[in-house]
Specification:
With about 400 residues, this protein is an alpha+beta fold. The chain is built from 20 helices and seven strands.
C-alpha cells in the first residue's frame, strides 16, 4: 500500500509541532512560565525511556500550546501533523480507547524519525548513517564539554570536531541534524536540531562510565540528561550501568557530605532509566528516609523530594506502600501517605488506609482536621473523613 503524500507545508507544520512537544516535555519552551503552568494539568508528558515519550492530552490543548510560540497551529493542522507522525513516519502510537475520548499518544524512535523524514530527499546508506551518528556523537560530546556556548557551535569548532570526517558535514546539514542559526564576526554558527538530540548523540558516544567522574559531569547540571540517556541505552552492558550506580552510591566527598548527597540523589533519579538496578531497593530506602525523617536537614529533604518525583515511579510507589504500612513514626506515615496518594498514585488505597490510621491515632483537634482535609483530597467523599468533620 502506498504511503500518503504530504507536501512541504505539512512537513513544516509537523516539524513545528514536533519541536514544541520536545521543548515542552523538556521544560525548555521559551514563554511565560505562568502560561505553561495553566496547561500542565491538560498536557501531561513523561519520558518512559530515552526514545519513548508519552503524551496525554487533547488536540485543543496542543492548539493552545502552539499559540504560546511563534507559529500557532490550528486544530486541523495539528491533526494532520499527528496523522503524518502515525502513518508516514511511524513514530506515533495512538493509544486512545476511542477517538472521542482522552487522547494518549506514545512518540518513539525520534532519531529514526529524522532519517525517515529525509530519506526521500537525501537517501543515506546504513554505513553512512552509522558513520554520521558516530561523528555527531563526537561533536556533541566536545560541545558539551566546553565551558561556554555548548549549544551554539562556531564553524571553526564544528570543523575541528568533525576532523577527518568533515565530508559528512554537508549530509548533517541536509538531514537537519545541524542547522545554521546565526553569523558572528563573519563566522557561521550552528546548533543541533534540538538540544535533546545533542544530548542523545553525546550519550551514545560515551563508552565508559568513568567519563562522568573524570570530568565531574555528575555534579554539572548540563550533563544530567546525558547521564539519564546513557543509563537508558539498550546497547550497553548491564554491568556498566550497575558499576556507575554503585560508584554514585559509594561516593564520599570527605567534605561534609554535600556532594555525597548529590551523587546519591543522581543515582536515585537515574533509576527512571535503569529501574532494574540491583541497588534500587537500597537507594529508595535511603531516599524515603531522607525525605520523611524529622532529623533530615531541610536542603537534603528538598533534594529528596525532587528525586522522588524523578525516579522510577512504579518502584517508588511500591516502596512507599511498604513504608506507610510499616513505619512506627506517625508523622512520617502521615506525610508519606499524602505524598503517595496525592502526587505519585492518586487515591492509592494504602495511602488512604494509612491516613485513616493516622486519624485514629492522633488526638489534637487541629491535626485531625488537617488529616481529614488531606484524606478528602486524595479520596473525595471518604466516609471516615466526612464523619470526623
Amino acid at each position: 500500500m502506498a504511503r500518503p503524500s504530504y507536501g512541504a507545508a505539512t512537513q513544516s507544520r509537523s516539524r513545528i509541532l514536533f519541536t514544541v512537544l520536545l521543548d515542552y516535555a523538556n521544560e525548555e519552551l521559551e514563554t511565560e512560565e505562568s502560561s505553561i503552568e495553566v496547561l500542565r494539568p491538560q498536557i501531561q508528558t513523561h519520558w518512559q525511556s530515552e526514545r519513548r515519550l508519552i503524551v496525554r492530552t487533547k488536540v485543543r490543548f496542543l492548539e493552545a500550546l502552539t499559540k504560546l510560540v511563534y507559529s500557532p497551529l490550528s486544530a486541523d493542522q495539528i491533526k494532520e501533523s499527528l496523522r503524518r507522525f502515525e502513518d508516514y513516519l511511524g513514530i506515533l502510537e495512538d493509544n486512545r480507547p476511542n477517538r472521542g475520548g482522552s487522547e494518549v499518544w506514545h512518540f518513539q524512535q525520534f532519531v529514526d524519525t529524522i532519517y525517515a523524514w529525509k530519506q526521500d530527499y537525501f537517501p543515506i546508506t546504513p554505513t553512512q548513517r552509522q558513520q554520521l551518528n558516530y561523528v555527531l556523537g563526537q561533536v556533541a560530546l566536545r560541545a558539551l564539554a566546553q565551558s561556554e556556548t555548548r549549544f551554539r557551535l562556531p564553524y571553526s569548532f564544528v570543523q575541528q570536531a568533525f576532523g577527518n570526517a568533515i565530508d559528512l558535514m554537508p549530509l548533517a546539514l541536509q538531514l537537519g541534524w545541524l542547522n545554521q542559526v546565526s553569523t558572528t564576526s563573519g563566522e557561521k554558527v550552528y546548533a543541533f536540531y534540538h538540544s535533546s538530540f545533542q544530548e542523545y548523540f553525546a550519550a551514545q558516544a560515551i563508552d565508559d562510565w568513568h567519563f562522568f567522574f573524570e570530568n565531574f559531569a555528575i555534579f554539572q547540571s548540563h550533563w544530567r540528561e546525558v547521564i539519564f540517556l546513557w543509563l537508558g541505552r539498550t546497547d550497553l552492558a548491564i554491568a556498566q550501568k550497575e558499576s556507575f550506580i554503585q560508584a554514585l552510591l559509594n561516593f564520599d566527598d570527605r567534605c561534609g557530605g554535600f556532594y555525597t548527597h548529590r551523587a546519591f540523589f543522581l543515582a536515585v533519579s537515574g533509576l527512571s532509566e535503569f529501574p532494574q538496578s540491583q541497588n534500587a531497593d537500597q537507594l529508595l530506602t535511603g531516599l524515603i528516609q531522607h525525605r520523611f525523617s524529622s532529623e533530615t536537614l531541610a536542603p537534603v529533604r528538598e533534594a529528596a523530594r525532587i528525586a522522588l518525583l524523578q525516579t522510577d515511579r512504579q518502584t517508588a510507589i511500591a516502596k512507599l506502600e511498604q513504608f506507610v504500612c510499616s513505619t512506627p513514626d506517625v508523622f512520617a506515615r502521615w506525610t508519606a501517605a499524602y505524598t503517595l496518594g496525592k502526587t505519585l498514585d492518586y487515591g492509592n488505597s494504602h495511602a488512604v488506609d494509612a491516613l485513616i490510621e493516622v486519624l485514629n491515632t492522633i488526638e489534637n483537634t487541629m491535626l485531625r482536621l488537617n488529616v481529614c482535609d488531606q484524606l478528602e483530597r486524595i479520596n473525595p467523599g471518604n466516609r471516615v473523613a466526612f464523619e470526623t468533620l
